[in-house]
């Protein structure tokens, strides 16, 4: 495809031709490897198993049962077709009142009914991706920055930076304290930004964490509120995994924290939510911005016209989330099934001598393969990842794609497959570790000399220059992590 005309003038915009989408990352490369050779138990049993997609597929039977029992919830059934005309016609940007009321009620229930949410503060968007971009457009100008604790979701570089031209500055966290977000780390990241003359507009927290599968405790959330109030910057809390907590301690929302102290400036607090993870509906593209700032709500409503949730989806979701008995059963069963899958998988890894970060939430594990690295470098992590995806045929995501400061960690999604596929994945891991994990000298591991894909120098150079895997310790002005995405 030609991007330059015969007279050398660009045919397309900078947005269309730059790498700001962050797609050149092992995170997305793993998906491509799966798409080319997808596992199937009978048709392609040696294919790649998809463990890089955080989907909740463990409770679809409950949803299907509800749909069969409630045909009137869909305008495409005999019992619901009478509502077709009303729903198909134009709806304003506020969303259907029944939808906003149901979502507000569901958000409260997921958080233990400890806080209530105002339906009039709910702003719709096309999934959490659209919600993150919307809040960024509302809060930041091109070149402004947000602090983000590492490791963080690989898609944030796209969601918050590509079209907005905002920046993400890493708040470096370490495994020595289970990647806890500390005030010291926040202050250091902020000081570096000030020194580099970068305008910091806010702090982005993911709670529960993707990719760690852990939750932020009350003290950490209070410290974050104290920090943003002192700096007079915004706090964006991504809480899209709130209902995936499957064991103690309980999830604590930032909404609960600001209720405890009236001195906190609520105008600085914004929550991102969706139904993609908690309910397992990523295809419905239900994203929510819940802001305590009136101006943000007003601006977000105007922007939502570029990514509204379809009125048909709103109608169905409103009916489903309003069914208290179903929601209670779903949340209880979901937590139980996630707990079982987590226990089964971590036990299987433990038998193979592999440890994971101790998590209690999310649809994934943060797997520790540092012991299998030839060296403690990004290069060694990438070499190991290439073997896992090309030889072991598992699409797991390397920690460097999540900007982890320590090589050797991998995110493994465990809720997007059935039990039989899970067993196959665990068996492949065990066989790989048995073949390669018991060598006394890590530098003599046989996979090192048997790399079938034989990383070329050119490919490795591309890997090292990818903005998704550069070290968070890089100086801010030069680091691709914080460069404006243009």
From TrEMBL:
Gene3D superfamilies: Aspartate Aminotransferase, domain 1 (3.90.1150.10), Type I PLP-dependent aspartate aminotransferase-like (Major domain) (3.40.640.10)
Domain (Aminotransferase class I/classII large) ranges: 49-429
Pfam families noted in UniProt: Aminotran_1_2
GO MF annotation, one: 1-aminocyclopropane-1-carboxylate synthase activity
Protein origin, superkingdom: Eukaryota
Catalyses which reaction(s): S-adenosyl-L-methionine = 1-aminocyclopropane-1-carboxylate + S-methyl-5'-thioadenosine + H(+)
InterPro entries referenced in this protein's UniProt entry, alphabetically: Aminotransferase_I/II_large, Ethylene_sulfur-biosynth, NHTrfase_class1_PyrdxlP-BS, PyrdxlP-dep_Trfase, PyrdxlP-dep_Trfase_major, PyrdxlP-dep_Trfase_small
Protein name: 1-aminocyclopropane-1-carboxylate synthase
Species whose genome carries this gene: Eucalyptus globulus
High-level lineage: Eukaryota, Viridiplantae, Streptophyta, Embryophyta, Tracheophyta
């Amino acid at each position: 495809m030609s991007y330059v005309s015969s007279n050398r003038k660009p045919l397309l915009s900078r947005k269309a031709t730059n790498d700001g989408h962050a797609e050149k990352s092992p995170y997305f490369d793993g998906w491509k490897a799966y798409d080319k050779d997808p596992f199937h138990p009978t048709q392609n049993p040696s294919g790649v198993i998809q463990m890089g997609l955080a989907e909740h597929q463990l409770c679809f039977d409950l949803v299907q049962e509800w749909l069969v029992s409630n045909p009137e919830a869909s305008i495409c059934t005999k019992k619901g077709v009478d509502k077709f005309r009303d729903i198909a016609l134009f709806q304003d940007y506020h969303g259907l009142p029944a939808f906003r009321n149901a979502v507000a009620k569901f958000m409260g229930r997921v958080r233990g009914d400890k806080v209530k949410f105002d339906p009039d503060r709910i702003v719709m968007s096309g999934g959490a991706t659209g919600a993150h971009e919307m809040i960024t457009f509302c809060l930041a100008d091109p070149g402004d920055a947000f602090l983000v604790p590492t490791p963080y979701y690989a898609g944030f570089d796209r969601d918050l930076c590509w079209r907005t031209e905002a920046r993400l500055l890493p708040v470096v966290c370490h495994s020595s304290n289970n990647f806890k977000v500390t005030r010291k780390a926040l202050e250091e990241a902020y000081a570096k930004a000030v020194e580099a003359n970068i305008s910091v507009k806010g702090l982005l927290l993911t709670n529960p964490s993707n990719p760690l599968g852990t939750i932020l405790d009350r003290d950490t959330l209070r410290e974050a509120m104290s920090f943003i109030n002192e700096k007079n910057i915004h706090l964006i809390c991504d809480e899209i995994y709130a209902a995936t907590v499957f064991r103690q301690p309980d999830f604590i929302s930032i909404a609960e924290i600001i209720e405890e102290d009236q001195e906190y400036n609520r105008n600085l607090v914004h929550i991102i939510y969706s139904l993609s993870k908690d309910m397992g509906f990523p295809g419905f593209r239900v994203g929510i911005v819940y802001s305590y700032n009136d101006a943000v709500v007003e601006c977000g409503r105007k922007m939502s016209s570029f990514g509204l949730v379809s009125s048909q989806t709103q109608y169905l979701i409103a009916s489903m989330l309003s069914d208290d008995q179903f929601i209670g059963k779903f949340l209880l069963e979901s937590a139980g099934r996630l707990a079982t899958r987590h226990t089964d998988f971590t036990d299987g890894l433990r038998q193979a001598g592999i440890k994971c970060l101790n998590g209690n939430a999310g649809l994934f594990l943060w797997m520790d393969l540092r012991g299998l690295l030839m060296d403690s470098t990004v290069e060694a992590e990438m070499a190991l990842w290439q073997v896992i995806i090309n030889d072991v045929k598992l699409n797991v995501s390397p920690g460097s794609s999540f900007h982890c400061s320590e090589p050797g960690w991998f995110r493994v999604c465990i809720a997007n497959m059935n039990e039989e596929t899970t067993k196959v994945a665990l068996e492949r891991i065990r066989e790989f570790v048995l073949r390669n994990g018991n060598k006394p000298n890590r530098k003599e591991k046989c996979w090192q000399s048997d790399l079938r894909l034989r990383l070329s120098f050119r490919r490795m150079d591309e890997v090292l220059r990818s903005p998704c895997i550069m070290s968070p310790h890089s100086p801010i002005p030069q680091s691709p992590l914080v460069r404006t995405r243009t």
